[in-house]
Write a structure and sequence with these properties.
Largest sheet of chain B: 6 strands, mixed
Radius of gyration of chain A: 19 Å
Structural class of chain B: alpha/beta
Strand order of the largest sheet of chain B: 6-7-8-3-9-10
Structural class of chain A: mainly alpha
Order of helices and strands of chain B: EEEHEEHEHHHHEHEHEEHH
Distance between the termini of chain B: 33 Å
Number of strands of chain B: 10
Chains: A mainly alpha (about 290), B alpha/beta (about 250), C mainly alpha (about 300)
Oligomer: heterotrimer
Strand order of the largest sheet of chain A: 1-2
Chain lengths: ~290, ~250, ~300
């Protein structure tokens, strides 16, 4: 394998892992509430910025990361309380605007609480590049890929083996039936949003050392995480992971071999193509409307 | 001479075969009913006859000519209208506007004429409004003419759908469980309405569970069971058919 | 309708200086886009999170043809509007098959792709720094000055509202509202839903492009900042805030939300927080929008003496 190809593959997997985490966040919230959370990208931003500021306050990295993730989870739950719950039953357009409004609000708060500067997070285990298959990879990339893989396994276990996880799945399949067997939809919503926010924040902390963080870093990441979720199949957990990794690879290879100027457009071209040609995505099914 | 003839109709959904090898014939100016237990494929069949579903196999003949329509509005243009089991009323409009919307096929309106408010259009609009009001009166809803559709009671909504379907001047009208959820007095009204519609020369196809209504108003009946034809014939013959009784009617039709 | 024309004609009495005129022109341009977008979102029941893209095609299309190829500005404007409508027609066919969130995402993707192209093809567009645009001129007469532009934009706004109201009251308008009410039932009633959706989409795209081209010639400059996702969102919020399925609501929404940021500068760094908060609160408590909610309140006040 050529060194250049290996380089593109590695960087594609790295950014793909981040997209996968963001996409998973979308997927979990969509399944629990049928809401597309346009504020998902802001959780990524909060993760990175909060970690940077906790680090600046003197906390060691692991604690700063934990604190940032916890903060994001709390904000996720606040989102349920103040945005999603009051608007239950609203139309698609209304819900979209509410979550976009929340995203703008969070970005505004970020500029007030923190600032508009770019912040760097220190790499977890140093900057010395490691040689792999003729290419060099920053140790942080290995952290990104490794932690993501761990998270995916943990989530699989959570959804398939724990009662809370199964309750979330039940609500996503049939909300009324889930309520009738005693599942608290409110609790499921809170857990789902908290979990998605935590995932987003983690992604922000992981990628912070590589791409830096700032108040508006969530916009593009959120949108591309979307594109990844749609590529994999909206509402499918495995789809989110597959979609994220695939999108990362496509972006990296496309930027490397086709056009680096249009790198950002790749995600959206892919998304449009998927929506037009196979809206269910790679792993999603086709739904039939009952009349 | 048949109005609508189905030949070998089948419909699969993934692994489920909803309808299999269905042949039947609808004669003009007769009331034709389709009965069968839940899940027998009745609504699926109606969806095929109005272009909402594409059949997996089989053909339809309208006036002995192959029906080439693809999209629902093409089936409507061919003269097939329908009402829905779970009401599909335009709740964002008034009752009158619902019926006016049903007149779409008979309105010629270019984009330019619409944007520029051509005077011809004003006259056409008035005619459309009058026709819609007539239809509302025909189904007994003249009291609700100016009301918003979402203010109407359930029974009125069912009749509103019928008025809307009639607005297109169909030759074949498919009614999907028009009596569902109605009390006996309202059902008698529906019975009379169906007869009035048939008297206007429109061929009515009725999908119903209410056996009294079906047997009282139908000329011919098609019985479906698990997507296959169980029996087809005159109402009296079908009600006495032992296979039908065993599969569906149980201890004497109500 | 007459009230609007009167408002447009009389407003200059309240406008004290050039800055006020500028705001009024901005309001007018946004209102034009919103009236068109309202046809799509409020009446036809679809959604577009990418309309800034069509605005941008109008703006950049007219700018490039006029500045780089020397076309007469009015011709450039017409061509740009036609191009936007044509693109909407071409892309709309496959996209409008989608519903709800999927349609929203598809239009979002389209808008972003347009914005990336505009920012990247700097040979034509001047890239992230933008490009200058010649003023609007017809037969040697150049349109210049706040007042002249005010009358042009005001007249075009009144014209757009008139056309929109005509369309809504016509059988075509009924067909659009029907497919919003129930696409299945509309089809069965003989309405060619795909064709009508496409009509609303292309029409609203052309109207957005018109406003974009006018904006470009008015300010004399255009940057990719006008072709962003954020701008698309602002447009949708204006329509929904003012009132869906209400042409005047669209105008009111545009007016309020164009003027709002000017007021919000009072809040300085809390501007975004307040804007986001306003968006959320109005959607939660006034989901039908300002004008319909006020109209309903007025109706209830009338009934209960």
């Amino acid at each position: 394998m050529s060194a250049q190809l290996a380089q593109f593959l590695l960087s594609g997997l790295t950014v793909g892992a981040i997209y996968a985490l963001v996409a998973l966040g979308f997927c979990i919230i969509y399944n629990a509430s049928h809401v597309i959370n346009f504020a998902q990208g802001e959780f990524v931003m909060i993760g990175g910025m909060a970690a940077a500021s906790f680090l600046g306050a003197g906390l060691p990295l692991p604690l700063a990361a934990l604190a940032a993730v916890a903060l994001a989870a709390l904000i996720g739950m606040a989102l349920v309380k103040f945005a999603v719950a009051p608007a239950r039953g609203a139309s698609v357009v209304t819900l979209i605007i509410i979550t976009i409004g929340a995203a703008i609000l969070l970005r505004g708060l970020a500029t007030v609480v923190w600032d508009k500067r770019i912040h760097a997070l220190p790499a977890f285990s140093g900057d010395a590049p490691i040689a792999v298959a003729g290419a060099t990879i920053a140790p942080q990339s290995l952290w990104v890929i490794g932690v993501t893989a761990l998270i995916v396994c943990a989530l699989w276990g959570f959804f398939n083996r724990t009662l809370t996880g199964k309750a979330i799945l039940a609500v996503s399949h049939n909300r009324l039936a889930a309520q009738l067997v005693g599942i608290s939809v409110q609790r499921v919503l809170l857990v789902s949003f908290a979990l998605s926010a935590a995932l987003g924040a983690l992604a922000g902390i992981l990628i912070g050392p590589i791409t830096f963080t700032s108040w508006d870093v969530g916009v593009m990441l959120g949108l591309k995480g979307f594109a990844a979720a749609i590529l994999g199949g909206m509402g499918s957990g495995p789809g989110a992971v597959v979609g994220g990794l695939t999108l990362g690879l496509l972006e990296s290879l496309g930027a490397g071999y086709l056009s680096s100027a249009y790198k950002d457009a790749i995600a959206f071209i892919v998304m449009l193509a998927v929506l037009v040609l196979m809206p269910g995505g790679l792993l999603g099914g086709r739904a039939t409307e009952r009349v | 001479m048949s109005l609508l003839r189905a030949e070998g109709l089948s419909k699969d959904f993934g692994g489920v075969r909803a309808i299999e090898a269905l042949d039947f014939e609808i004669r003009p100016r007769a009331v034709f009913s389709i009965i069968g237990p839940n899940g027998a494929g009745k609504t699926t069949l109606l969806n095929i006859l109005t272009g909402i579903y594409r059949p997996s196999a089989g053909r339809l003949w309208l006036d002995e000519r192959l029906l080439e329509a693809r999209a629902p509005h093409e089936f409507a243009a061919a003269g097939i209208g329908r009402t829905f089991q779970n009401l599909q009323i335009f709740f964002n409009m008034s009752a009158l506007e619902n019926v006016m919307a049903g007149r779409h096929l008979h309105e010629r309106c270019s984009v330019a004429a619409a944007l520029l408010r051509a005077p011809r259009l004003a006259r056409a609009e008035r005619a459309c409004r009058e026709r819609a009001a007539e239809l509302l009166a025909f189904v007994g809803l003249d009291a609700y003419a100016g009301a918003a559709a979402d203010a109407l009671p359930y029974g009125a909504l069912k009749r509103l759908e019928i008025a809307r379907a009639l607005a297109a001047e169909p030759r074949l009208l498919l009614l999907d469980e028009p009596a569902a959820g109605l009390n006996p007095s309202e059902i008698r009204d529906i019975d009379r309405l169906i007869q009035a519609i048939a008297a206007r020369g429109i061929t009515v196809v009725l999908v119903e569970h209410n056996m009294k209504l079906v047997m009282g108003v139908s000329d011919r009946v098609l019985v479906l069971d698990y997507g296959r034809k169980l029996a087809e014939g005159d109402a009296d013959a079908v009600r006495k058919d032992p296979r039908v009784i065993e599969a569906y009617l149980g201890a004497g039709g109500d | 309708m007459l009230a609007l024309a009167a408002a447009v004609a009389l407003a200059p009495l309240a406008l004290a200086n050039n800055y006020h005129y500028e705001i009024a022109i901005l309001v007018g341009l946004n209102a034009i886009v919103c009236v068109g977008l309202n046809l799509l979102i409020g009446y036809a029941g679809q959604i577009s999170l990418g309309h800034a893209g069509f605005f941008g095609i109008g703006a950049y299309g007219s700018a490039i043809l006029a500045a780089r190829y020397g076309w007469p500005p009015v011709l450039a404007l017409a061509a740009a509007v036609a191009a936007a409508a044509a693109l909407a027609y071409a892309v709309g066919r496959p996209i409008l098959r989608l519903k709800g969130h999927y349609l929203a995402m598809a239009t979002l993707g389209l808008g972003i792709i347009i914005s990336i192209v505009v920012a990247t093809e700097d040979r034509y567009t001047g890239g992230p720094d933008g490009m200058s645009v010649p003023p609007l001129a017809l037969g040697g007469v150049t349109l210049a000055g706040e007042r002249a532009w005010y009358w042009l934009v005001g007249a075009l706004l009144v014209a757009t509202v008139w056309l929109s109201l005509n369309l809504i009251d016509s059988p075509l308008g009924r067909a659009l509202r029907a497919l919003h009410g129930s696409e299945v039932a509309a089809g069965v009633a003989g309405i060619d839903s795909p064709r009508h959706k496409l009509l609303a989409f292309a029409l609203s795209a052309g109207i957005a492009a018109l406003a974009g081209a006018l904006a470009a010639h008015y300010t004399g400059f255009i940057t990719p900042g006008k072709v962003t996702f954020q701008h698309s969102i602002e447009l949708v919020v204006m329509v929904v805030f003012g009132g869906m399925a209400s042409t005047f609501g669209a105008v009111v929404g545009a007016a309020v939300l164009t003027a709002l940021p000017q007021l919000l500068t009072v809040f300085k760094e809390y501007e975004m927080v307040v804007f986001g908060g306003v968006m959320m609160l109005t959607m939660i408590f006034m989901p039908r929008g300002l004008v319909p909610t006020l109209a309903a309140l007025a109706a209830r006040r009338e009934r209960a003496p």
